[in-house]
From TrEMBL:
Entry's transmembrane regions: 155-174
Entry superkingdom: Eukaryota
Protein name per UniProt: DnaJ (Hsp40) homolog, subfamily C, member 4
This protein's UniProt keywords: Membrane, Transmembrane, Transmembrane helix
Naturally occurring in which organism (per UniProt): Oryzias sinensis
Top-level taxonomy: Eukaryota, Metazoa, Chordata, Craniata, Vertebrata
UniProt keyword annotation of Mitochondrion present: no
Keyword RNA-binding annotated: no
Length: 220
């Protein structure tokens, strides 16, 4: 009985040690920073096209819908997206490369990099708006303003004359069209009236002949 109890105690100790080592290794793995290049399976000097192709290839394998029974795919897919988000942009990739080369610089590196990026962006914005300010035309003299005013008046007069000519041409065209239409309708009415009168006269003559023939048959 004592031997059996000692064996059971040894098994429990071994099981506890095994679980402890496994939990310790998992916690170390979680604390260890993930190398985005290794996660995507590319080199540190890979081009943007290589990074994009590697991301598409890996995302198909690690997508949660590919194996719903595996809950770890979601976290791996999130890490893969984060790696692609950082490495696909030039500024964030430079900051990440600097962090890899100087792992003990801490937040000071990112602070300086962010301040540099913000200052560079401010300089770019200032340069952008300076272009608009310098591109404005110089102040015109009184003679130039008078010439521009006359040119604008002349342009307005041309527009008005063109509009009036267009209205007159449309009026003449519609009058001509109305005259042609009225002539056509009058001719049509004349032809219809003539056909009607001819038909009426023909019916009257045929009726008279028929009545005459009926009377002749009665007198026979």
């Amino acid at each position: 009985m004592q031997v059996e109890a000692q064996l059971r105690l040894c098994q429990n100790c071994f099981w506890c040690c095994k679980n402890g080592w496994r939990m310790l290794s998992q916690s170390y793995a979680h604390r260890k920073p993930v190398n985005y290049y290794d996660l995507l399976g590319v080199k540190s000097d890979a081009t943007l096209e290589e990074i994009k192709n590697a991301f598409f290839h890996k995302s198909k394998k690690l997508h949660p819908d590919s194996d719903p029974s595996n809950p770890e795919l979601h976290s791996q897919f999130v890490k893969l997206n984060e790696a692609y988000r950082v490495l696909s942009k030039e500024l964030s990739r430079k900051e990440y490369d600097f962090k890899i080369r100087h792992p003990y610089s801490g937040g000071q590196v990112f602070g300086s990099a962010s301040s540099y990026a913000s200052s560079k962006s401010a300089q770019d914005n200032t340069h952008y708006w300076e272009q608009f300010r310098h591109s404005q035309p110089p102040e015109m003299t009184a003679e130039e303003r008078e010439q521009r005013r006359k040119r604008n008046y002349r342009l307005v007069a041309y527009c008005i004359v063109t509009m009036m000519l267009s209205i007159g041409a449309h009026a003449v065209f519609f009058r001509k069209l109305e005259k042609v239409h009225n002539n056509f309708m009058d001719e049509k009415d004349r032809v219809i009236t003539e056909i009607y009168n001819e038909s009426k006269e023909r019916a009257r003559i045929n009726g008279f002949k028929k009545q005459t023939e009926i009377l002749r048959q009665k007198h026979r």
